[in-house]
């Protein structure tokens, strides 16, 4: 592929900006990619040509970041080096920036493999320049309709963008994803036999109530969550494909999510049965990339949850779990995880309506907060913060949470102080922010964790001094 003068200027300017950001202590990949894209709109095409072992992408509505980071950890354990947009910058500019970082000044890549998280709405732009070797598709749920439009449109655009040359790693339990393999494309499916939460009937909102092939209503013999489960169409015969990677004997125990595939036992520290799908996607892709099961076991077991994905912080008052919420199905699974805790619970919910969150917050009325209301004896307190704290509190009031348990506090720091002040021993704490509140909340938690760690070291040193 011939590289033009635009490519060389874009490459060198992008790398100079990257160095400048690193010297100033900033980690940004978006700015170098944005400038490089402006200089050479085909920069991704030129950069991707250097990865001789191919490019693996992860896309879908929920679980992209966790799946990509799980797979990255497995690849590291296997001793592989690769380009990776670990910061989660999954639009064209962030992807370009990540590729720039592993490209030398002479235009050659320092790694043979690339692993990229790609926003589902960015897949068409990405695949217009790059043909992925492997594509993981996690699931499809309604997410920020004001940004992405109707779900059918998103699914269609992703489906039309992928090349027949790309091996698809597909969630068999989601009919919207499983349909991708029905056109004779190279496909490998993963799925779940059952979880302790699986049921024969469901009142949850389902995105795929009707067959994607003929439009007839799907029949389910088992629901896992949302539209994920064991389904079939009695009209055209469309049905859940047989997964090549099937999770069995699923159990959450002692802080680990345990499951079995064939004769091999796996475990990860991720909470929530919905995270089982992320682990299965990473496992399936790792096998396709030639990684042995023994290394996959190690990679999953040693994985540390990334920013805001059931991430745990050890504060002076006890452990706090932080997790991102952004759409009804994901929020419902977080609620299920919270209520499965056999302890009193305090919750902080942060709702913003900035562009990255989605301006339309009507989706909150599709979340099953009534489950909190039915278990209000377990829910000790809910603090609502963020720009739309009042809207969140109103939704919870209608869900049956007593007013005396609802607290309004728009700012993160004050909300956390209130939460920790009233916390009793033995209670679990969960903090659930939307995207633009995630990192500011995380920064406060990191500072509190650091202070708690320093205080513990200080107390220990005082104790040792007293003994001497």
UniProtKB/TrEMBL annotation:
It catalyses: beta-D-GlcNAc-(1->4)-Mur2Ac(oyl-L-Ala-gamma-D-O-P-Glu-L-Lys-D-Ala-D-Ala)-di-trans,octa-cis-undecaprenyl diphosphate + NH4(+) = beta-D-GlcNAc-(1->4)-Mur2Ac(oyl-L-Ala-D-isoglutaminyl-L-Lys-D-Ala-D-Ala)-di-trans,octa-cis-undecaprenyl diphosphate + phosphate + H(+); beta-D-GlcNAc-(1->4)-Mur2Ac(oyl-L-Ala-gamma-D-Glu-L-Lys-D-Ala-D-Ala)-di-trans,octa-cis-undecaprenyl diphosphate + L-glutamine + ATP + H2O = beta-D-GlcNAc-(1->4)-Mur2Ac(oyl-L-Ala-D-isoglutaminyl-L-Lys-D-Ala-D-Ala)-di-trans,octa-cis-undecaprenyl diphosphate + L-glutamate + ADP + phosphate + H(+); beta-D-GlcNAc-(1->4)-Mur2Ac(oyl-L-Ala-gamma-D-Glu-L-Lys-D-Ala-D-Ala)-di-trans,octa-cis-undecaprenyl diphosphate + ATP = beta-D-GlcNAc-(1->4)-Mur2Ac(oyl-L-Ala-gamma-D-O-P-Glu-L-Lys-D-Ala-D-Ala)-di-trans,octa-cis-undecaprenyl diphosphate + ADP. Keywords: ATP-binding, Cell shape, Cell wall biogenesis/degradation, Ligase, Metal-binding, Nucleotide-binding, Peptidoglycan synthesis, Zinc. Coiled coil: none annotated. Transmembrane segments: none annotated. Zn(2+) binds at residues 211, 214, 233, 236. Its EC number is 6.3.5.13. Residues 324-437 form the Lipid II isoglutaminyl synthase (glutamine-hydrolyzing) subunit MurT C-terminal domain. Pathway: Cell wall biogenesis; peptidoglycan biosynthesis. The lipid II isoglutaminyl synthase complex catalyzes the formation of alpha-D-isoglutamine in the cell wall lipid II stem peptide. The MurT subunit catalyzes the ATP-dependent amidation of D-glutamate residue of lipid II, converting it to an isoglutamine residue. Belongs to the MurCDEF family. MurT subfamily. Forms a heterodimer with GatD. This is Lipid II isoglutaminyl synthase (glutamine-hydrolyzing) subunit MurT. The gene is murT.
